[in-house]
């Protein structure tokens, strides 16, 4: 029986709408069982042609997460996470980027279900990816594109302002049948 069959559609949709990036965390560790549940969800994520092109490196060592935080323009928050999952992918092209995003979103939704905050980090340059590859001993045939930072959200610190969390109305982002219609 799927989650969608065991909870109301309204509850499932509310959970999907409420997912937000967390970038400030309490220092509490995440139980290994919870991390393994997230990895199991990741394992079942769909991929282009079912290639499952990923290898996931789980990092719980604070010093290594601090080093990862220095590996890109959008990675600084990793210095405060309880754990991170670095997503290394094999292959090239748009399907790899699609698979990366699909896996990250799925893990973030699962983390939210467990009461764990999460945020994505991007290793956007060849130099930053090489830095991550060297740090985590990732083989050359895998590209470490991103990481999912995990922890219990520190609600005493400011997160994104409400204006940044707002959404455009559907009328600005949706057309029916043809663009602009």
Shape: globular
- Structural class designation: alpha+beta
| Quaternary organization | single chain
- How far apart the termini lie comes to 39 Å
Give the beta-strand count.
4
Q: What's the alpha carbon Rg, rounded to whole Å?
A: 17 Å
Indicate the proportion of strand residues: 15-25%
Count of helical stretches: 8
Order of helices and strands: HHHEHEHEHEHH
Q: What helical percentage do the residues reach? A: 40-55%
CATH class annotation: Alpha Beta
Q: Provide the number of structural domains.
A: 1
Here the CATH topology equals NADH Oxidase
Per CATH, the architecture is 3-Layer(aba) Sandwich
Family: Belongs to the nitroreductase family.
GO molecular function, one term: oxidoreductase activity
Protein name: Nitroreductase A
Pfam family, one: Nitroreductase
SSE arrangement:
Blueprint: H1 3-6, H2 9-18, H3 32-43, E1 54-59, H4 62-69, E2 83-89, H5 94-113, E3 117-122, H6 126-136, E4 143-151, H7 162-165, H8 170-173
Antiparallel strand pairs: 1-2, 2-4, 3-4
Helix pairs in contact: 3-5
Entry keywords:
4 strands; NADH Oxidase; Nitroreductase A; alpha+beta; Nitroreductase; single chain; 4-stranded antiparallel sheet; oxidoreductase; globular; 181 residues
């Amino acid at each position: 029986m799927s989650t969608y069959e065991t909870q109301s559609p309204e509850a499932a949709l509310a959970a999907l709408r409420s997912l937000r990036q967390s970038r400030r965390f309490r220092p509490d560790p995440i139980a290994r069982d919870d991390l393994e549940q997230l990895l199991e969800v990741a394992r079942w994520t769909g991929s282009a042609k079912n290639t499952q092109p990923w290898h996931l490196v789980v990092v719980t060592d604070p010093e290594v997460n601090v080093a990862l935080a220095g590996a890109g323009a959008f990675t600084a928050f990793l210095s405060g996470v309880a754990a991170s999952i670095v997503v290394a992918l094999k292959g090239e092209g748009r399907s790899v980027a699609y698979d990366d995003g699909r896996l990250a979103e799925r893990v973030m939704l699962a983390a939210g279900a467990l009461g764990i905050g999460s945020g994505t980090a991007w290793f956007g340059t060849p130099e930053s990816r090489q830095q991550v590859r060297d740090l985590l001993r990732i083989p050359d045939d895998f590209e470490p594109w991103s990481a999912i930072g995990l922890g219990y959200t520190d609600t005493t610190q400011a997160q994104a302002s409400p204006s940044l969390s707002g959404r455009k109305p559907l009328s600005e982002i949706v057309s029916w049948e043809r663009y602009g219609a």
